Amino acid sequence: AQSVTQLGSHVSVSEGALVLLRCNYSSSVPPYLFWYVQYPNQGLQLLLKYTTGATLVKGINGFEAEFKKSETSFHLTKPSAHMSDAAEYFCAVKKNTGFQKLVFGTGTRLLVSP
Amino acid sequence: GAGVSQSPSNKVTEKGKDVELRCDPISGHTALYWYRQSLGQGLEFLIYFQGNSAPDKSGLPSDRFSAERTGGSVSTLTIQRTQQEDSAVYLCASSGRQGRSDEAFFGQGTRLTVV
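Above: the input entities. Below: the structure tokens describing the complete assembly.
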């Protein structure tokens, strides 16, 4: 069965600093990988996804993530944090065979200070 | 509509009463999910519908919880004899129009408060 581990329930950065949110997955077959963002009192919104092809994936709002099969990781990064990036971030995995359910990590709350 | 629609957006109910939460997925999407998000917690998977296959009910926390999906479209999550610990935001998502790699699209959620 697939699973996702997000290290750190909270990550704090200063405005302008590098953002790094960690995600490691477990999957018996090559996975599809996703990052979602949830702003306060809103639903989840897709940031980016990896399916096949290029392992470095660029998403909205300047975020990107790199699929590293050897490390079973899909960490989310952004070179320079903005105050508006403060939100909850969820990593998710799905098998790429047949129709499979999406499995989420427990989330990481990003706090951005001035 | 263009997105996933959930109703009601807020629901306050008395302990012991039954509640029904509704989800209208994006037209043509074959997969539908229900998740629960308690205050300060992550996403708890509840149930997954995919086409005409038997639903994956492995996340339902007790037999007070049930869900159905009529005609492969609208879904209703029912909670019987509500308890205070059922208070949470219930999120619905759908996916599947463009293939297996499709991401899930989420509704805004129903905030359930049991008093």
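Note for the figure: Chain B has a mean pLDDT of 91.
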